[in-house]
Design goal:
About 50% of the residues lie in helices and about 5% in strands. With about 550 residues, the chain is α/β, with parallel strands linked by helices. Helix 2 (about 35-65) runs parallel beside helix 4 (about 120-150) and helix 2 runs antiparallel to helix 16.
């Protein structure tokens, strides 16, 4: 029996609502990060909207292929038959959501929540759902209008395809060319102004040996907010000496802000000049750091290295963006890699001219987007004759080519969240549980360590989770991944996407927040500092655990 126009659209909407309810329910299941009611609501609303569009599209495709329409039961009966089980299923999933979230919180040492605040969750989800459906209806109107116009000149099906493509192109142009660029310009301007602010509690250094002092080749105002913090924070030689009961040197820190020079190459040359001025190449260790998108450098990483080497260490970094890492990765992916290559080229170029027995050991480091760009800074074929000594890359993003290649070519039987690569002589992986002491493995001339947590969505996000189960979800799982986490097509990708945006809200030692004690294990393996007993290492871990607990 032919379905009337009203009946057909009613049937389409109910189909969309049925799939939307299913997607809403599945979005409540646990993933990598614990979610607040607000974040969960945004995720659930987005998931429900995706489900609605899929349901409507499925019926549209059925109609487009001119397949026979199913019989249409009486309107109210059919509506009740569809909506009643949807409400029941969604209610059950809402009831279970607190237990699921606590399964993650418990693994991360967080206090359990008594309730998931379903009213707030539903309110946010409904607002997000309505907003996305409104956009979808606008897209549908535009597509239909284009179809009606083209239908006068070309066949009906071709007109539909062209009308849909035109609507997609227009929506993309508006989103990318107007809203996105305007929002990006506002964000960049705001962050640039914030970066230029000089904190009241961050005075200009008076020590001429410090970057940003009157004697420095980089002016104090040219460091940027993150650079000023990096230069003035960290341990002094006195701090290190008092802890180890030895005479220790003040660590050297060099940082060049984004506004210090017009080009990346000029900023890299300033960094090298400042390193020379401070005598960095007379130290035993030199670390070339690639910061995160905002220019931030994790103090848990560098402070620990400075203690391990008794202050006889220098580090250098070059800012390349004001934007947070995920936004910088999206809109200016080449900036970070260009800056990393320029800095490494300058530092390595000078370092390689020095006598091998009278120059520091050279290492690379980066966290998150910094890890990705640091991996791109050096071409192995250019340095193989005179290689640097190693690298420590923490929380590498999922798009890191080196990390991805090594993980995919791991030893059979080793998990994707803690792979073993080759014979362990060049690259090793570790997490909360130190996994760097591999029986029978001997380090080669280059030591590379990837520090990553199984619960870090920045590292383990996968576009392919849209349609396939990620390898890291195969048993056995990481120690900080909920046993209740189940792969669900489409939903898992959305969950990991939202997890990535809140990855730094986890407790230290989980998610994308790396703990100093784990950096200590990694630096010990990469740089092999001398004279550290097991007791001294534990004392250092205890010192940093106490220090960072209050930050």
């Amino acid at each position: 029996m032919e379905i009337s126009r009203v009946g057909k659209w009613s049937y389409l909407s109910l189909s969309g609502l049925a799939v939307a309810a299913l997607f809403f329910s599945f979005s409540l299941t646990p993933s990598l990060m614990p979610r607040s009611p607000f974040v969960q609501g945004a995720l659930s609303g987005t998931s429900a909207a995706c489900g609605y569009f899929i349901g409507v599209f499925a019926v549209w495709l059925w109609d487009y292929l001119e397949l026979p329409s199913p019989p249409s039961p009486p309107g109210r009966i059919w509506t009740a038959c569809v909506l009643t089980p949807c409400i029941v299923v969604s209610t059950w999933f809402l009831w279970q959501q607190t237990t699921w979230q606590n399964s993650i919180r418990g693994l991360m040492g967080m206090e359990p929540v008594a309730a998931a605040d379903p009213l707030k969750l539903l309110g946010v989800a409904l607002l997000v759902f309505i907003a996305l459906i409104a956009l979808g209806l606008l897209f549908s109107r535009l597509s239909t209008s284009s179809y009606v116009w083209f239908r006068r000149f070309i066949p009906r099906r071709l007109a539909r395809v062209i009308g849909t493509l035109l609507a997609i192109m227009l929506f993309w142009s508006v989103a990318e060319g107007i809203f996105f660029k305007v929002a990006l310009r506002v964000a960049d301007s705001s962050l640039r102004e914030a970066d230029a602010l000089i904190d009241d509690n961050t005075p200009e250094p008076t020590d001429p040996a410090k970057t940003g002092s009157a004697a420095s080749v980089v002016a104090w105002k040219q460091l940027g907010r993150q650079g000023r913090h990096f230069i003035t924070s960290g341990p002094t030689g006195q701090d290190v000496g008092e802890f180890l009961h030895v005479n220790a040197r003040d660590p050297i820190r060099v940082y060049v802000g984004l506004n210090a020079a017009e080009t990346t190459e000029e900023r890299a040359k300033l960094a090298l000049a400042e390193l020379k001025r401070q005598g960095a190449f007379d130290r035993s260790v030199l670390i070339v750091i690639v910061p995160t998108g905002t220019g931030w450098i994790d103090p848990a990483a560098i402070d620990t290295a400075e203690y391990l080497h008794r202050g006889d260490i220098a580090s250098v970094a070059l800012q390349y963006s004001y934007l947070v890492s995920w936004l910088s990765l999206m809109v200016e992916p080449g900036y970070g890699s260009d800056a990393a290559r320029a800095l490494f080229k300058e530092v390595y170029g000078y370092w390689s001219t020095l006598p091998r027995d009278h120059r520091p050991q050279l290492y690379l480091h980066g966290l998150s987007l910094g890890a990705l760009n640091s991996q791109l800074s050096a071409n192995l074929y250019d340095v193989i004759a005179d290689p640097f000594q190693g690298a420590l890359w923490s929380g590498p993003p999922y798009s890191s080519a080196t990390w991805k290649s090594v993980t995919e070519n791991r030893q059979a039987g080793s998990p994707a969240w803690l792979p073993r690569f080759g014979n362990g002589s060049i690259i090793r992986f570790t997490n909360q549980r130190n996994a760097l002491n591999i029986p029978g493995a001997v380090w080669g001339p280059i030591r590379v360590v990837f520090l990553q947590y199984a619960s870090d969505p920045v590292t383990f996000f996968e576009w392919r989770s849209f349609y396939r189960k990620p390898d890291w979800l195969v048993l056995p799982r990481g120690p900080d991944v909920s046993p209740s986490f189940r792969w669900i097509p489409i939903i898992t990708m959305l969950q990991l996407g939202f997890d990535s945006m809140i990855a730094t809200t986890s407790p230290m030692g989980y998610g994308h927040v790396y703990a100093p004690q784990h950096y200590i294990d990694a630096w010990l393996a990469v740089t092999a500092p001398q004279g550290w007993s097991a007791d001294d290492v534990q004392r250092l871990k205890a010192l940093f655990s106490t220090k960072f607990k209050h930050l």
